[in-house]
Design brief:
- The protein has a single domain, classed as TIM Barrel.
- The protein contains 11 helices and 8 strands.
- It has an 8-stranded parallel barrel with strand order 1-2-3-4-5-6-7-8, surrounded by 5 helices.
- Helix 5 packs parallel to helix 6 and helix 10 runs parallel beside helix 11.
- The longest helix has 21 residues.
Length: 286
Amino acid sequence: MIPELFSRGKPVFSFEFFQPKSPTEMSRFKTTVRDLKALAPDFVTVTYGAGGAAGERIKTVETAGLIKREIGLETAAHLTCLTHTRPEILEVIDRIAAHGIENIVALRGDRPAGSEVPAHDFEYAVDLVRIIRARKGFRIGVAGYPEKHPEAVSRQTDLIHLKEKVAAGADWVITQLFFKNADYFDFVRRARAVGISVPIVPGIMPVTSFSQIQRFTTLCGASLPEPMVAELGPIASDPDAVSRYGIEYATQQCRGLLDGGAPGIHFYTLNRSHATATILSRLRAG
């Protein structure tokens, strides 16, 4: 199981993928996953289609099972709870178990845009952590926010919510994306100060598009450093230049994190292999 990986005394590298939306995308997706398997990641995670129809949610669990069964990678399935009833959650957990997956990343999930949240029995991720822990047989990851969750009143209240998730049974934390290592190290320091002792893994998203990363950071409450904005602005219309910049920036960021004691790196791949493969290869080369 995944938590044991952090006790080996070497960095743990993991990749996040999302569910492809069409058969054509699925073909490309499998190629990407197989390409990245060559880098021997310690585990991968698959995001959960909580906002879609039931069939789409089933597909995401099946994709996680495919990665573990056919491609042979240790897999954690994301699971969100905000739009679910208790029977629905129990059914999805059973489906995850049926695929032989023993790790779940427990998340609240985003509120549906422009609509009311449907009938549900879970309001926060801690509620989901509790039901998964009661089900037994799973190890649980949760999300952490170095710059605080966008809906949180303050950094301290956000940290208290994280402590509640860990107390309820979470085994490790994956952070939201960030671009200033000082934010991560301060977050870890504050977490340890309130008694959170589980591994806190930094989540890194290599920049491949300036407009895309601006959109992502706005949605998740992360910030872009002013020097990064100044350097990306003039090259924003050159995808190759942006990609080269993003790879170099993320490589240096990851080196600083690992040198500072981070237990590993979790890459938000956006279902692409080039940037992640290049960065991880550089890190392993020293």
